[in-house]
Amino acid sequence: MTDWLHGKRALIVGAGSGIGRAVVDAFRAEDARITVLERDRDKCERLREELGGVPVVEGDAVTYEANERAVKVAVDSHGGLDTLVNCVGVFDFYKGVNDIKADDLSPAFDEMFHTNVLSHLQSVKAAVPWLRAGTGPSIVLAESASSFYPGRGGVLYVSSKFAVRGLVAALAHELAPQIRVNGVAPGGTLNTDLRGPASLGLDDVRLDDTPNRARDMVARTPLNVALTGEDHAWAFVFLASDRSRGVTGESIHPDGGFRIGPPKVEQR
Questions:
Q1: How far apart are CA 88 and CA 64, in angstroms?
Q2: Which partner from 35, 166, 194, 268 sits 20 to 30 angstroms from 53, CA to CA?
Q3: What digits encode the pLDDT tens for the residues 9-62?
Q4: pTM over the 0.90 mark
Q5: What are the residue numbers of the active site?
């Protein structure tokens, strides 16, 4: 523990599993005072059991009401708010436009963009008034390798994650100089509960259950690594800390080198 976040008061949205859950542990290890917002009731109960006195708010982050309630709990519990993290997301399992029935396209679009984009905006909208009064305030949003490159998701997921990248840029410009806004753009991640949209009948399908997922992740990254939420969480720590006080509108890419091209083929 280095106390990089000592005294920081943080709200972590989508904290029940995967990257969000890892961010909770990393922030606590760095001495942050946190509050969490999570939609799933069972995950909320598990968080309360595992995190002791950490305030856990149950609610759907796509609504302003749930975010406003979580912000109020954070402020009441810790006397203010310095950092907002949003890790909410849903995946489309690589479905192209020709894979989606015409009648399903509109509801699937609405669900994908409500979950992956609107939830971030609702969190920001609720938090900004309190962040302005915070100490070294910052916002960190979960982007994706799909925020920069096609092929790491289907047409709806990739376009929604490009939109999150746009949010980072637009919000960083709008909220400067008071609030920094940055993104973390992970590559594939093991040990998550990332699922698909209910509108496509994929809400019970977990990306992590894909056969040979770890092997395939290793094979497609130049560093030959299959990363977990714990690996990504430290990028969130850095961006929330005062050590990144000169950084806004940027993205950190914990993706195993995916951006620099395909892995090298060993010569034998």
A1: 14
A2: 194
A3: 999 999 999 999 999 999 999 999 999 999 999 999 999 999 999 999 999 999
A4: yes
A5: 157
